[in-house]
Amino acid sequence: MSRDAGSLLAAAPLSGLYLEAGQQLRRLQDQLAARDALIARLRARLDALEGHAAPSLVDALLEQVARFREQLRRQEGGAAEAQLRQEVERLTEQLAEKEKETQQLMSQPQQAREKELVLLRRSVLEKERAQAASHVLCRSLADETHQLRRTLAATAHMCQHLAKCLDEQHAQGDVGEKCLKEREHTDGDQAAVEKLQEENRLLKQKVTHVEDLNAKWQRYDASRDEYVRELHVQLRGLQAPQESELMRKEISRLNRQLEEKINDCAEVKQELAAARMARDSALERVQMLEQQLLAYKDDFASERADRERAQSRIQELEEKVTSLLYKASQRQDTQEEGPCWIHTRSRTAKYLETDVLELGAPGGWRPGPGSPQLESPAEDVCPSTAHRGQGKRPSCDRSKAINVNSTFFQVLRTGLMSVISTILFIHLTLSMPLKEELL
């Protein structure tokens, strides 16, 4: 159809040239007729004026006129007329060919147009279907992007929660509450890390799916562009003004929609790049949190071992204090049994004081020979008791027993104070590294 239309367009200037050549030929024929008429008038006048002229002169004049007329024809219309005749013949042949082609085309023009219209309608329907498919695809991409955004927001919220929990753990000063809560936070952090890893795996799968959809959309976009270009080429060959105008409007509308879809795809690509960046930052944050969790686990294990050693040491000290108190209660019960126990009690008190001082002194300190010690109650015994026999009570036995008891309790109090100071020293020693780490 386009070839026939091109041949018709090429025949239009040829027909114009043919008409111009015909008009020029008619003008030349008119000029020749006017000159023939002028010659006839001149001959008539010549016959009227010179009736007695010789026939030979008239014939000579006629021959001369004929010769002049032939020369005039050759001069005016010789070469130009030949060229015009050749051009007219050639144009006539071409026009005849074009008329034949036109008649052949006019014999079935409606069928070709109907076929072309059917093809165009089919192409429009296919394009609408492709547009609907692309709309569905873009909607699915938008849904995927929204879901990725929500997942990333949840991940960021979880990371913020973990960071807040870690900051709260740093801010806590009580070691006991920190030890009890750490187990729960450790389990919760481990579950959160596992959850984040699962979410990251799902995010990777979704990103791969979105990339595949994007590649498919690009291929579909390229094929659609090729199809639109083919439609443009086909529509250029149409000669129906109204239908071509409608098709131009339809193509412009489809081009606008195509540009909108391309812009949407560009926005989706940007959102995908932002999602990838957010995913990378979330992965880095998770790795950093995992490293911090490992460091905190090591610190908590060492602190737990130190606390267990301190607790065992405290239990040992408590057992020793309990045994000393038990011994003190037994000796207090046997206080009133007689004077025969006075010297034994004094020696026991002295040994008890030595044990308590050794137990209470930090670092295993023992009193030296030059250190001040409690005086033995045996030095205060009345000298008359050395000469007295067994079974008799002197007058100062009760006062000496009271002095022994008071001395014993002073020694016991001193030992307990030493034990308490040792426990406080251990607690301060264990809490100093934690304070330095927190600072």
UniProtKB/TrEMBL annotation:
**MF GO annotations:** zinc ion binding
Q: Which GO terms describe its biological process?
A: apoptotic process; cellular response to lipopolysaccharide; inflammatory response; positive regulation of canonical NF-kappaB signal transduction; regulation of transcription by RNA polymerase II; toll-like receptor 2 signaling pathway; toll-like receptor 3 signaling pathway
Region of interest (Disordered), ranges:
365-397
Q: Which UniProt keywords apply?
A: Apoptosis, Coiled coil, Cytoplasm, Inflammatory response, Metal-binding, Phosphoprotein, Transcription, Transcription regulation, Ubl conjugation, Zinc, Zinc-finger
User: Which GO terms of the cellular component aspect does the record hold?
Assistant: cytoplasm
User: Any idea where the TSG101 and ALIX binding domain is?
Assistant: 204-236
Instruction: Mention any Pfam family matching this sequence.
Output: EABR
User: Which residues does UniProt call coiled coil?
Assistant: 81-108, 244-327
Protein location:
Cytoplasm
User: What does the subunit comment say?
Assistant: Interacts with STK11/LKB1, TNFAIP3, IKBKG, NFKB1, MAP3K8, TEK, RIPK1, CHUK, IKBKB and SMARCD1. Interacts with polyubiquitin.
Job description of the protein = Inhibits NF-kappa-B activation by blocking the interaction of RIPK1 with its downstream effector NEMO/IKBKG. Forms a ternary complex with NFKB1 and MAP3K8 but appears to function upstream of MAP3K8 in the TLR4 signaling pathway that regulates MAP3K8 activation. Involved in activation of the MEK/ERK signaling pathway during innate immune response; this function seems to be stimulus- and cell type specific. Required for stability of MAP3K8. Involved in regulation of apoptosis in endothelial cells; promotes TEK agonist-stimulated endothelial survival.
Q: What is this protein called?
A: TNFAIP3-interacting protein 2
UniProt organism field: Marmota monax
